[in-house]
User: Which sequence fits this backbone?
């Protein structure tokens, strides 16, 4: 089935991140299990579209969202495209598949007030300083969770107020750092130096190990639950908040694109649709009925 070759291809030629490759593995292994249990097929490189179709129906019966199903089929698309590339099959069994209609989820950013309030809820110890810096770095720079986790000590340039970030497809970029964030980072480094650490990552556990994705997610959820009633609180919401707040305050969208590490402007333009505070303010201040009261 050439699965190991495929995953090597994603890693070495496409420069996909470990998390992305893991998602591909999970999707394809789920499909393999389905083919074997439901159709007694052990080699998924030889399936036809009817098998793909039956899997889509099965996933729908399991109440998976259209977005999730589309992502899983996208993983299969990439796998079969690889098999064509290495001349193991002639055409993809997914070529006639049409993506399911999916409702796009709108991510509601935190308000500026909520972000300012969260600064006051941290304890003054190593973990408190670290947690505060994690939240502040995500919001002040807009970097992704994996980019934050992967930051090394020599990626931080305090005097220049810059951070070097390793983004998607292993693309490096320099991200500006506010002086207030640089000061907070310098303060954290003092506490970090008291920890016996095993790695050179900026953010470590109290035992000196590299932090994981679930820890970052839990921290954002934990601290923002104290100042916000929003159901969705995640590192990605902070990234949305960063971009939305900059746009609301007049920043150029092309500058935001570069900071976020987007390859196309279309990815950044989604944030132009989330100017809720400004939209509400403009609505109240300019509606004739409101002005006459």
Assistant:
């Amino acid at each position: 089935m050439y699965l190991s070759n495929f995953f090597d291809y994603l890693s070495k030629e496409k420069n996909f991140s470990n998390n992305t490759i893991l998602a591909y593995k999970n999707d394809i292994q789920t499909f393999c299990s389905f083919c074997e249990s439901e159709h007694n097929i052990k080699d998924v490189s030889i399936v036809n579209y009817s098998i793909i179709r039956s899997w889509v129906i099965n996933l729908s019966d399991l109440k998976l969202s259209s977005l999730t199903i589309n992502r899983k089929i996208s993983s299969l698309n990439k796998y079969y495209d690889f098999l064509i590339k290495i001349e193991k099959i002639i055409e993809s069994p997914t070529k006639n598949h049409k993506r399911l209609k999916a409702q796009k989820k709108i991510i509601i950013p935190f308000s500026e007030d909520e972000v300012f309030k969260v600064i006051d809820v941290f304890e003054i110890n190593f973990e408190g300083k670290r947690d505060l810096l994690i939240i502040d770095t995500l919001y002040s720079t807009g970097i992704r969770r994996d980019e934050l986790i992967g930051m090394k000590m020599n990626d931080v340039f305090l005097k220049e107020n810059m951070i070097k970030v390793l983004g998607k497809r292993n693309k490096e970029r320099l991200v500006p750092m506010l002086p207030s964030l640089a000061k907070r980072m310098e303060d954290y480094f003092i506490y970090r130096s008291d920890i016996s650490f095993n790695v050179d990552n900026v953010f470590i556990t109290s035992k000196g190990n590299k932090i994981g994705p679930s820890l970052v997610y839990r921290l954002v959820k934990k601290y923002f639950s104290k100042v916000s009633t929003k159901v969705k609180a995640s590192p990605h919401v902070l990234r949305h908040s960063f971009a939305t707040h900059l746009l609301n305050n007049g920043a150029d969208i092309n500058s935001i694109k570069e900071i976020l590490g987007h390859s196309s402007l279309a990815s950044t333009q989604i944030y132009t649709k989330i100017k809720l505070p400004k939209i509400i303010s403009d609505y109240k201040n300019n509606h004739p009925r409101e002005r006459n009261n």
